[in-house]
Amino acid sequence: MKFEAKNISINRGARRIIQSVNFALNNGDALIVTGENGSGKSTLLRALAGFLPFAEGSLFFDLPEEGKDDPLIIREHIHYLGHQNGMKPALSVRENLEFWQGYSTASNSDEGLDGMSLIEALDFVELPHVLELPYGYLSTGMKRRVSIAKLLITEKPIWIVDEPTAGLDAKSSAMFTDLCKDHCANGGILIAATHLPLGIDGAKKLEVEQLYTFHGGGDLFDEPESGS
Amino acid sequence: MRALLKRELNLALRAGSGALTGLLFFLAVITIFPFGIGPDLNALSRLAPAILWVGALLASLLGLERLFSQEREDGSLDLLVMQDHPLALSIFIKCLAHWLVTGLPLVLAVPLFGIMLNLSPIGIGAVMVTLLVGTPAITFIGAVGAAVTVSLPRGGLLIAILVLPLVIPVLIFGVSATNGALFDPDPFTSPFLILCALSLFTMVLGPLAASMMLRHSVE
Amino acid sequence: MNDVATQKTGFWTWLTGLANPTRFMGLADRWIPWLAAITTALLALGLWMSFNAPEDYQQGATVLIMFIHVPTVWLAMFCYLVMSISALGTLVWRHPLSDVALRAAAPIGAAFTLLGLITGSLWGKPMWGAWWVWDARLTSFLVLLIIYLGIISLGRALEEPTQAAKALAITTLVGFINLPIIKFSVDWFETLHQPASVSRLAKPAMDVAFLYPLLTMALAFSFLFATLHLMNMRNEILRRRIRSLKLRAAAGER
Question: Could you tell me the pTM of the whole model?
């Protein structure tokens, strides 16, 4: 399995956010994207997950079938965990998780996407007791952990996680790091944006820097002394 | 897809969702009309199809704001867009669920409100049938408005402004079909069939347009 | 309960003592069977008296509807009064049970209002020739129903009880202050239009033969209200306990 980005650039409106990013990830690799606030980490991750088009460059994933370089097809194999958890406070944890499990496996059941059961997944994030409780009653950190459990209930080879440990205490962060290690050890690929070290040994690093360029190339808001 | 339908219905029926607010709004609109027109039962019964239709139209626009904006706020929209299901189909299901909990109750409430407006049994039947066929069109056109305003903090009023002009044809053919059933020289079948056509057309067009917009909104 | 202490400290302390939901629950558990029994007895008596009332020379048997209709209408209004006092209790005295009382009364009030409207229109059909006319009384009652339903929806929309309590109390009180204005303007609306289709019967002084069954029924309905209200308050308290248990379960991790 190989997940490769070749010379990717991303624009937002007239501004270039990401310039010529390259990486190649194999089975079990982790990529940690670092950078200051506003440097475009989230934008890069969202583009990799197929939400934004690339201005230049392409993505490659060695799928058995067609669509190795179509981001819209690749993203079926991606778990994306953004800043928000994508859960409904009025529904119970079980209803929320069952929905995402059912919704994301429905059409691809032949591919063996089924992950672990809800109870196993909640055991992993150490929240076995909240299954029947309304999601809205949980604390911020617990909500995050439930949405981490969501990554486990459907199995997808690529995890793209954006600030996954936001709102988690030290213990839960360590728990998440272990989950990521497990995922990589089982041959999965992890791409995480974070400004706190996740503590994954041997992870590749990618630093994104804030750009002040328009994609025409003119440096409009460049400060004189930076002299880019 | 069944998972989505189940979730939407679950959400709508859970406390705090306000699925019945539309029905209550419908009742309130019906109640204030006679104050403007006067309590003359003959005048009311003549105007009843129009009053019921306008009331149902406004009531169905009411809940549209929440259709996608809540999904966007809690991040579900990203994940809905991401799955390999056609997004338009997911939107269709969401609209269907929305109609089931907001549009259908309006149709079912017509007999009661029709009596209050002194509408004849035939008229009540006609309004029910035309609303049953016509309200989906309002929901599916409204979905486009909801999708366009999804990222706005207070999009509710804007949806109404955007969508009201677009649903004028639905209102025209809905009311004229009802009047066709009630008053003899007017035809019933042709406006009714056009109404059906409008609904079927918007069922296809609405989700497609909304899905284009939503794809763009998650960029 | 220790009756001696209650008598000593007086009614007010007793009332504040009720702020403890557990004590209220105990009280409700003891009262509800008695209230239910009294309600049943009074209803049976009232219905028996109603059916034995003479037929009205103008309205015939339809006058019997009155024995249901008038008490429901009274109770529908009385219930709003109870809710308004509870609203004051929430806002002024901050009595924790008054919010429960307000919430518990709203569906009962709405049900009585709806029953009043339905029985009224059943009664109106033979009198007016239509199920519904936009007569001042019916219309203001319809407005009352909308207010009730609005309060119920508001209560359902706000999930956090303490947050909901204030909103509900304020809405109820604003409604209470507005009700006479609504009533007045609706009356005005009717005199402006004087609908020709509506012929209201002149109201004769009520015969004693009608009065006693009516009063019995009214008393029965009052007890019915008290029973239902206490039961629903108990449910509401249980509902909140379940909620806080769930919250505690969610917080008490591992």
Answer: 0.81
